[in-house]
Amino acid sequence: MNYPLQAMIQLGVVPPVIFPTDSRYYGSKVQQYAAPNGQVIPYLARRIAPQPGSPNFATINQYTVKQGDRLDVIAAKYLGDPIMAWLICDANGAMRPSDLVATPGTVLSITTPQGIPGGMSA
C-alpha cells in the first residue's frame, strides 16, 4: 500500500526532512527498508553517540546539579539554547536525560564539540 504522504515525498511535492544544525540528527542519512509486501519505509540511520571526553568534546564549564534542575534550562543558561540539551547528554554519556539531573550534587560537564565555539557562559 502506498500512503499519500509517502507518494508526495517520492514525487518531490513534500521536501525531504532536513534537520536544523542544532539537532542531534543534523547530517543523519535517511535509509529505506523494503518490506516483504513491497512497501518502502524510510527511516533515519542509527545515530552512534560519541565517546564522552576528549577529543570529541571540549569542556567549557562544569555545573553541579541542584534539586529541581532541568536539563533544558541548564543548556539554555550555558549553551544559549535549550534544544542543545542533547549535547550535554552526549558529553556526559547519558542514555536517559533525566538521569543527569536526578541526583543533586552530580557534576555535569558542559561541553561543545571541539572546533565549535561555546555559547553564552553563565
Explain briefly what this protein structure is.
The chain has 122 residues and is α+β, with helices and mostly antiparallel strands. It contains four helices and four strands. The chain has a two-stranded antiparallel ribbon with strand order 1-2.
Average pLDDT works out at 80
Structural category: alpha+beta
Low-confidence stretches: 118-122
Helix percent reads 10-25%
**Largest pleated sheet:** 2 strands, antiparallel
Order of helices and strands: HEEEHHHE
Percent of residues in beta strands: 15-25%
Strand order of the largest sheet: 1-2
Shape: elongated
Number of strands: 4
Terminal-residue CA separation: 53 Å
By DSSP (H or I, 4+ residues per run), the number of helices equals 4
List the helices and strands and how they pair.
Elements: H1 4-11, E1 30-34, E2 40-44, E3 57-64, H2 71-79, H3 85-91, H4 97-100, E4 107-113
Antiparallel strand pairs: 1-2, 3-4
